[in-house]
Amino acid sequence: MSAARSRAGQVRAGGDWRTARWVNAWAPLGMVLLLYVYFAFIARAPFFADLANLQNLMIQVAPLIIATCGQILVMTVGGLDISIGGIAAFSSMAAAYGAISTGSAWGVLLGLAVGAALGAVNGWVVARYRISPVIVTIAMLSSARGLAFLVTDGQPLVGIPFSVFWLGWGDLWGIPAPVLLGLAAFLLTEYLLGYTDVGVHLQAVGSDEQGARMMGVNVFGLKVLAFALSGLAGAMAALVWMAQSGGGNQLIGSGLELQTIAAAVIGGASSRLNRSALGGVWGALVITTLSNGMNLSGVQPYTQQIVLGIFLILSLLIYRFQDRLQLVLRRGAGGPSRALPAPGTPEGGGERGR
Amino acid sequence: MEASAVPGRRTETWPWWRFPGAGMLLVLAIVVIVVGVLEPRFLTERNLTAVLRQAAPLAIAAYGMGIVIFTGSIDLSTGAVVAMVSMLGVLAGQAAGSAPVGWLAGVLVGLAFGIINGFMVAYLKIPPFIATFGTLTYGHGLALAVGGGQSIEFPPAGYNFLGQGSLASVPIPFVAALVLLVLSHLFMTRTTLGRQILMIGGNRRAAELSGVDVRRVQALAYVIAGLLAGVAGVILSSRVNSGQPELAPTLQFDAIAAVAVGGVSMRGGKGTVFQVFVGALLLSVVKNALNIVNVSTYWQMVAVGVVTVAALVAGGEQEGRAYGMWRRVGRQLWSRRRQAAGAGAEGGA
Predict the structure, then answer these.
(1) What pTM does this model have?
(2) Staple partner for B52: which of A3, A132, B101, B174, CB 3.0–4.6 Å?
């Protein structure tokens, strides 16, 4: 815990930075609220403001939050996981197979194991052979979805035990199970990133791999860990969808890579120093509110795609300028006494994403 | 010092068979022979022209992808760009009532997307991955929106010539791929811009310090990629003789796989367009061979992924290593044999 604690002290030392980070972390919530107000009161989408729809929204957003947590972990070590949708598809098949063959709900753990294993393969190839994570995970996306189709020759795997449906439709003390799972995934990621040494080390690998290695951080293991957790998150999200749709399905998680990356980026998590998974939650909420609201207003699905693509690029642009803005604010806007570091140089916040 | 083993050094003489892409060409030849022996239906004229016809749009799109990858970036928008190209190309052709106008409009649409991508990546400094992923999303949405989710049928007469025509039994798309191969190879090796593209991929900071306008070169690489994606889209759309919003939704992944299989470094700064061409050809031949021996499409999806990563691992994608796995192993064996024969030490590495 030592590294985590010493960093906490640093945070307290720089008060303005703490405020800035607090604003950063919670600003995307404003976007969610604006969207909600827009659809509820301005566009007046039918049924949007109903309490039932709010609950529906929460259930819809939960698997996306789970998957986004995995994506954020991979982004923290400086990678991107494009295979998360393919892994979700294959692990839904594995989970359905496990549940059917054991006849109990615990069989779905096979899906989680498969997801984590495929993620670990990603991480192993990326860390051992130092190939660009984008390429490796693109290859894994194709392979995993191919495998998902292959195991049943393109048929969905139905007939899972009734108890599995709890994951998608059940509730505990009135809280829907998907929401509980999403909350658990968020809290675990938040704890891992913000309060443990592993989280600090993950950020170290992401921001300066060579430096982290010099400090004795196990770069290889942490990369494998991050990718494996991402696979696990994809599998977890797949479990919820599987329980909701009633069986293993190869089309589960199609487009998930885009949604998770968009959610992480909209939430401001694209920079490698992710100290929190909160942004991912807001990003997932923004995306789900957007699609839910547009669905209820009768907007065509392809128009939704256009809006999502533009939203993704715009939010990145905003965060770029926000970086600059913070630098200007910190230096008191004191004219051109010191030039702002050019984006892309190691100082400044320029190194983002890939 | 006679021929030391540092590839790419102009002053040294090389045996004619040591050129980038030679190894993959050998693999291609072996695959063709093996499949030809195992499956007589493969080496028929009808099947081979079909392979060339299929390989051509992939190869053309992969040239563009290769040029972007030479700069060390990536372009994930190709699949949406070709869909948009086919929709608007057919629409423009219908409006003007002539096929060439449709083709030209299609290429221009590709160019426009290239300009958008280049502007976002080079001037707005959005990470290439996210920017082109965004283009993929809204481009796909736009392509669906143009036709209201439907495909656009009935292009002007002769629109299908580019995709379905033949020139003395060689398919026109493949002729186009060969012409573009020569053009883009000359562009990469004989023009300042081409050399600068490799330069910013190799070391962006050094390129900047030696006076290269990095942003301009980066943007132009995307513009060229967009142009080539436009040509690929026109050929694909002309082959199906309609505008399809779902024309080739995963073309970008296949193009990246082709570039990787060709042995081009994903880090940028190294590679030739010829390697990309061989990679695209090899990928198409393997897919066709799998089709002929009735391997399911699902296995093919797995195979593409595994082959891509295997090619990168074998091609020496690891940092700080000048050669791939095979060449390292080969060099070790070679030097040992020479030492055993007392012929002196191996060349510098």
Answers:
(1) 0.80
(2) B174
